[in-house]
Amino acid sequence: MALIEVRDLSKYFYVAKHHRGMAGALKNLFSREYSTVKAVNRLSFQIEPGELVGYLGPNGAGKSTTIKMLTGILVPSDGALTVGGLVPWKQRTEHTRKIGVVFGQRTTLWWDLPVIESLDLLKHIYKISSNRHKENLKTFETLLGLDEFLNTPVRSLSLGQRMRADLAAALMHDPNVVFLDEPTIGLDVVAKERIRSFIKEINTQRGVTVILTTHDLGDVEKLCKRVMMIDHGKLLFDGPLSELQERFGSERELVVDFAENYPGFQIEGAAVLQQEGLRVTYRFGRTTTASELIAKLVSRYRILDLTVREPEVENTVRRIYEERLLAQESTSALTPDSNS
What we know:
It contains twelve helices and 13 strands. By secondary structure, it is of the alpha/beta class. The strands form three sheets. A six-stranded mixed beta sheet has the order 5-6-7-3-8-9, sandwiched between helices. Strand 6 (177-181), helix 7 (189-206) and strand 7 form a beta-alpha-beta unit. The two termini are 17 Å apart.
């Protein structure tokens, strides 16, 4: 049974229209007109226990609205969803005991208290046993390096330190699922890597289901095998990250180290992008396979080494949104059958 089940989920907001000028002010006062904004529009998907899913989309796509409904903060306008068999906004107390949430721009810790006191308070709030609380605290101290700031007030922490403390707080009560909304936003490279390592660790070692929304596609590339892409409230893609790259990635590159110099290095189906001594970089499209090119090269030249470079995930996703590739194909059953 799926841990998270979402079917035809929708969330509409009604926004008052504003009229300018003196006459408009009177109209605003005595007669309100509203427009409907479909933040999430008939969304359907399932997430199995232990998955680590990247939830992608541009600003205003509906990502945060979805997460807020999954956590019970918002009540849907239509549709159905369950998390661990519970309806989040109806069984809120029981539901919140089984989930963890981290919002990159907000903290769940007490602002003026040292981190350790916030973590101790959570022990009583979630009724965590003393032994389990000590075990988790020791584990998180090691994985997240909490020792250096456990006795520091939250308001005095750097952004990276606060994010590590928030992650520890979200996992202290052993939730089944964790919702991470931009957990690495604004962090430097070192802090990002530490948090990514922690997320991967709790997913693989503890089996915690993770739903990750982010604009940092480095997070997705290093953590997620499955991605869901949303735009204008609709789910446009749900599948393996490798499939996304295969279907919508730009041209690939083949880097070849030749054993000796040749009069020319041209090969059918690829263009020479760069040549440095005996190293040649070819660029080729999706209509040509790497194995085809390699076979041609091996039959003609002596080769020492070669490497295939896939396009970066960031470039692929940017291309999808800029060129509206998914929107063009959404009528061609782009989303897998499991979500139809």
